[in-house]
Amino acid sequence: MIRLEDVTKVYSMGDVEVHALRGVSLEIQQGEMVAIIGPSGSGKSTLMNVLGCLDVPTSGRYFLEDEEVELLGDDRLAAIRNHRIGFVFQSNNLLPRATALANVELPLLYSNDRHRRRRAIEALERVDLADRANHRPSQLSGGQQQRVGIARALVKQPAILLADEPTGNLDSEHSLEIMRILQSLNREQGQTVIIVTHEAEIAAQTGRVISMLDGLVVSDRPTGYGHPDEAAA
User: How many CB atoms lie within 10 A of CB 213?
Assistant: First the structure.
C-alpha cells in the first residue's frame, strides 16, 4: 500500500538548510496498524506530512497504492487527501454548536451525496458513539470528542487512517478508550491505521513500531500487539 524509497526532505530557512528526512525507506501493508515514534525534531511529523500527501519529498520516491506521488498534479493530490486518507489530529477541531452527527457529516456536505446522513450515522456506529449523535461537543467527554473526530475521518471510507498524536490531549483513561477504538477498527474492520506519537506506551499498543531520530529510521520492529489494558498493566 505504501512504499518509500530513500526519501529525503530538506527545508531552506534563509541560508540554512534543515534536513528533516535523511533517506527514509519503508513499506506499510494494507491492514497494518503502525506507530511512528520519536522525540521532537526526529522527523516523524515531516514523515506524516509526506505520507498524508500534505508535502512532497525533496528526493526519493513515494508510492501510494502503486501511484508515484511526486508525479501527481495538485488536483489528484487533493483527491487522494479527500478520499483515500482520513486524518485524525490531536485537536479534533469540532464545531462547538454542531451535533456529533453534523460534525461527522461535514466532509460530505459539498459532495452531493444523498446518503451522507446515513454514512455519518454508520461512521459514528463504527466508533461506538451512535447513541451520542445529537450531543454537542460540550456534552461529550474528551475521549468521546476524539471518537467523533475519528468518525469524521472515516466517513469518506478512506483506505488509510492517519492519526497525529490522537491521545496527546487525553488522560490515561480516555487514551485507552481511543486506542481500543483504533485497535477495533484495525483488527475487526481491517482499517489500515498509522499513528504518529511520542508516547512509547501508545506505540506499544500497535502491531509495529517505526522509531525515528534525526530524520532517520533507527528501528522498525513488530510488537506483541496486546490489548490496551494489557499494555498498560
Answer: 15
Residue found under cell 499513528: 195
Strand partners, 34: 194, 208
Q: Can you tell me the distance from the alpha carbon of 29 to that of 18, in angstroms, rounded to the nearest whole number?
A: 30
> What is the C-alpha separation between 144 and 29, in angstroms, rounded?
29
**Pairing mode, strands 67-68 and 59-64:** antiparallel
Contact 57, 50 (CB under 8 A): yes
Query: Do 140 and 100 form a contact (C-beta atoms < 8 A)?
Result: yes
Number of helices followed by number of strands (H, E) in the chain: 8, 10
DSSP string, 50-90: HHTTSS--SEEEEEETTEEGGG--HHHHHHHHHHTEEEE-S
Longest dimension (CA), the chain: 55
pLDDT in tens, 132-182: 999 999 999 999 999 999 999 999 999 999 999 999 889 999 999 999 999
Between CA 191 and CA 215 the distance in angstroms is: 27
Please tell me the number of Cα atoms within 13 Å of 184 on its side-chain side: 12
Q: Domains of the chain, with CATH numbers?
A: 32-53+73-222 (3.40.50.300)
What was the pLDDT predicted at 141? 93
Question: Cell match 490515561: residue?
Answer: 172
Radius of gyration of the chain, Cα coordinates, nearest whole angstrom = 18
pLDDT digits (tens, 9 = 90+) for 102-122: 999 999 987 777 789 999 999
